[in-house]
Amino acid sequence: MPSRQDRLGFLPAALARFVAYAVLAGSVVVAAAVAFGGLVAFVGLAAPHIARWFVGPMHRPLLPASALVGASIVTIADAIARAALPPAEIPLGLITAVAGGRRRRPKRRW
């Protein structure tokens, strides 16, 4: 089955540039939201996507499931932050940043 890019063969450079700009714009918007709200705001961005794995395509149970998943993530991160170094506490934002960080290995270019 031909993809949209195959059908738009006369615009490959413009389409590739548009996709690159769209991904860049989306990344900047998400980065600004996390920077403005703090590192804990990552939970608000990730929890609905994680809840969708459990709920499926239904929209009605997604809101309570998102709230439950977000609360669970923050509670677990807070427990880890308090238990990691007993006399002191690690900032909660550090734990959520490590949990939400990239897990992919870099590609080898040789």
Kindly report the average pLDDT value: 78
Largest sheet, in brief, is:
none
Low-confidence stretches: none
Encode the helix/strand succession as letters. Answer: HHHHH
| Tally of discrete structural domains | 2
What percent of residues adopt helix (DSSP H or I)? Answer: over 70%
| Radius of gyration over all CA atoms, rounded | 19 Å
Distance between the termini: 33 Å
Total E-strand runs? 0
Overall geometry comes to extended
Helix/strand class: mainly alpha
How many alpha or pi helices?
5
Strand content: under 5%
Describe the structure.
- The protein has 110 residues and is mainly alpha-helical.
- The protein folds into 2 domains: 1-37; 38-110, no CATH class.
- It is built from 5 helices and no strands.
- Helix 3 (41-55) crosses helix 4 (62-84).
- The chain is extended, with a radius of gyration of 19 Å.
- The mean pLDDT is 78.
Quickly describe the structure.
With 110 residues, the protein is an all-alpha fold. It has helices at 4-7, 12-37, 41-55, 62-84, 92-100. The chain is extended and about 55 Å long.
Give the tags:
mainly alpha; 2 domains; 5 helices; 0% strand; extended
Give the secondary structure arrangement, pairings included:
Blueprint: H1 4-7, H2 12-37, H3 41-55, H4 62-84, H5 92-100
Helix pairs in contact: 3-4
